[in-house]
User: Fold ABC transporter-related protein from Chloroherpeton thalassium.
Amino acid sequence: MKFYIRVLKYLSPETHQIVLTIVVSLLTSLFSVVSIYMILPLLNTVFNNNTEQVQTAQSAEKASPPVHKPRATSVQNIIGNIDIDSYKEELKHAFENLIQAETKQKTLLNICIFLIVVFSLKNFFLYLNNQLIIRVQTKTAKKLRDEVFKKIIHMPLSYFHEHKVGTLMNYVHHEVTVVHDAVSSSFVNLIRNPLMVFFIVVVLVIISWKLTLFALIISIASLISIRFIGKKIKSYASMIQSRMGNLNSKLQEVFNGIKLIKANSMENYEVDRFTDFTNEFRRISLKSNQLKGITGPLNETFGVAAIAIALWFGGIQVFSGEMSSVELIVFAFALFSVMQPVKAISQAYTKIQEGLGSAKRIFKIIDAESDLKNGMREIESFTDSIKLENIWFSYHKTENSEVLRDVSLEIKKGETVALVGSSGSGKSTLVDLILRFYDVDKGRILVDGYDIKDYDLNSLRKMFGVVTQEVILFNDSIAGNIAYGTGKNASAEEIVEAAKIANAHEFIEKAAQKFDTNIGDRGLRLSGGQRQRLSIARAMLKNPPILIFDEATSALDNESEKLVQDAINNAMRDRTAIVIAHRLSTIKSADKIVVMDKGKVVEVGSHFELLERNGIYKKLYNMQFLTPGDESPSFHKLENN
Ligand SMILES: Nc1ncnc2c1ncn2[C@@H]1O[C@H](COP(=O)(O)OP(=O)(O)OP(=O)(O)O)[C@@H](O)[C@H]1O
Assistant:
């Protein structure tokens, strides 16, 4: 219920539209019922051939054996002071006055015209009603979708490690759609259909309260059984929902790693895994649909049973002269008409339950607290240094899982600091902590003397330009890709200038539409080195005081590497830079080389100081450059320098 109220709160700004929807629902229901009730005078007029003069329902009734008095008494006995029969008579009179004409034929014509008008109005209001519901429902879904996306995108990086991409996509897409459907179902089945049922029941009671009572008992039995099945369906539905998340993740994983799959001829293996998955998915869908399928036939069986009992009981009343045969026909028709909304109401329970389940999951996302608290301090420029003071960090927050242990380091403005060390020694993690993708467990990181936790995250990250090995490019023009993330409208000149610094200008000029060339989905139409240089150009346009290069050249061939390395050297001029590199050749000229091993800083010094120290750096250096038969040009380059 709590969640239902919360979903309703999303609708609350649309109060005027909701009120209008209710009014139109009322009119729709009213006209639907009037159109059913109109059949009574129509049948009376058509079936009564005895007189030339107007044959009204009342006169038809009067022509039948006297039945009202004993019935009126019995109704009064049961419903106290309410004299239903006299209301019924008044209603009939009102109708008859409206349609009565001098001849039977004219009366019939009036009835038919009235019928067309009433049905037209009913359908007009039905259309209006549906349109109003769609407006509110799509607005609610849009609001929810925007909010979920906004929340997710602002969550810290750790959140994305904990949640599969497919599951997150499922929240934004599928779960919101389920709530969207539940909203319309709520409007129709909590407002329009109940009103419709109410009005039809009034008609039924007017015709025969006894028959109505029978039908009501059957309806209640039907509702109870549907409710029971609804619960089962709900649990299957949420199971399918979570599997849908897995499906998205699975597809994402496979298509992103398509190169790896093909290189290892793993297509068939992936097909088998996918087939296992779809088999399981089908099994659950089948079970859920088996249950869903029972709902319809069960409803109809109960509905038909209600009508059959009503007809049997009504027939006996007609035999005993308590009601006319025309009334019985209209009663059966009205009862049949009430079945559809009752059925919809009973099925709505399942739909609304599914919607509430999705709403619950969506609100869990919306309410998720980010463990990275934003600071208030703005940082306009980098003036002094970055200091890491005895920092400890672990991804899993369990004992002995620390990735960084008691790391202290100072990076002064204008310095180029290189991080080296074996794979998994914690270099990238250290950089991620400086960017505050995660918070340190112990110790602190200071930028210009203030803890980075005190800074506003956006303003802190504006100080950095990051170039990583995996370059993320979008399906946009080259210029658009370079300008991404600058937060300003970069001029064409600025973009060209950035491209020049990044050694990218030459290949861009050769492209079909130069800077306007679309680079295709994820930049696949570019070589690795070109992508790297675009990424450097992007960092240059942002013009940050501190640059971070994470393995920026490790995936390139020697020619590309040289171009990218030159671009990096250009970019680093007059800037503070943190460089992570596996190839030691690329960081030889760094002011400070920090050697990391198993999460600790083990050596710090210049290239030659570290070689002299004869420690881990020397070992790494020997491994990379002095292997017999190593023809690495990097080696020659280093030695020639
Ligand atoms: N998101 C993560 N969740 C859990 N553990 C992680 C995560 N990222 C990295 N690690 C672990 O932290 C340790 C340090 O990883 P990190 O990427 O910082 O090392 P690295 O020195 O940059 O390695 P490489 O040179 O191979 O990139 C490794 O043991 C790695 O498995």
The chain has 23 helices and ten strands.
